[in-house]
Amino acid sequence: MDFSNIRGFNYQPSYGSTGLEIWSNFDAQIVKEELGRGKQYFPNFSATRLWLSWDAFNRNPQKFADDFESVLSIAASYGILVMPVLFNRWHDGVLDYGGIYIDHFLPQTSWVQSQGMFDAYMQRIVGGHANDQRIFAWDLCNEPFAYSCEPETIPEIVNAELAWLTGRYNQCKQLNAQAPVTVGIHQCHHLNGIKQIEPISDILSFHPYWAPHFPGDSRKIYEAQLDEYVSFAKQVGKPLLATEACWGDEDDCKRAEIISYSLEQLKKRGIGWMAYLLHHSLIADAHRREFGHMGVPGNLSFIEADGSLRPGHEVFNNF
Asked: What is the pTM of this model?
């Protein structure tokens, strides 16, 4: 597969603010309508990064498995391939998505840990779709190593998290997953993060957000960072894919400018992408202010709550 040609989006259904809520209250009709809008507005929309919920699976494994199959079928009906995100480590202080916390992987720190606690989920979801051609890659975890301090200062936690990720990677291979496995790494610590997960990534994936209002985050610096990622990917001989991109803004014109510049730079370097985020949602940073808490990234959605396209966001189609 030529990952440089991927033109896609992350997708979170509009009706929930957490992974548990979205999947426990799964609504196939809404998912069909929202992915359909995406294909209507963006004809080259070819792939979606779909966040799953280990929390919801634990509540009702059969329902979750059935609903996951429904999403795969809906996406396929539009010619959209899927990258399931198995676990999540990104968290918000107000609208938290849920997922994995330090309690789950740092040895002897919490009673929530138990031997084989992830096995049933991995076997049902990855093992049950090991040869599924609708899945073009598996993302082990969204933004691990998401700390508010330098990783060098907390080596015990970093090593434990890496060991947990390595265990999940090995499980995917033991379950004969045919699609490549990756880890969606954030860009906060630059190349150190992607170098860390390279041994457990069949393809390299990262989140190259350009946020013009951040101090020091100039275009020159951003472009130099992209070049370093491309160079590293060539060095290890693995494809590079932006599994999140396009920082948000409440102002539609400013957001459109961010999209245009970001995608221009990715395309220039032969990097495919899945922008964040296809549709208005109640999750963090995916809606207008009237729908709830607004975080630092602002509004990252491309499609409004009423189903209309955000002004200027058709610029996605230029790339």
From this structure: 0.97
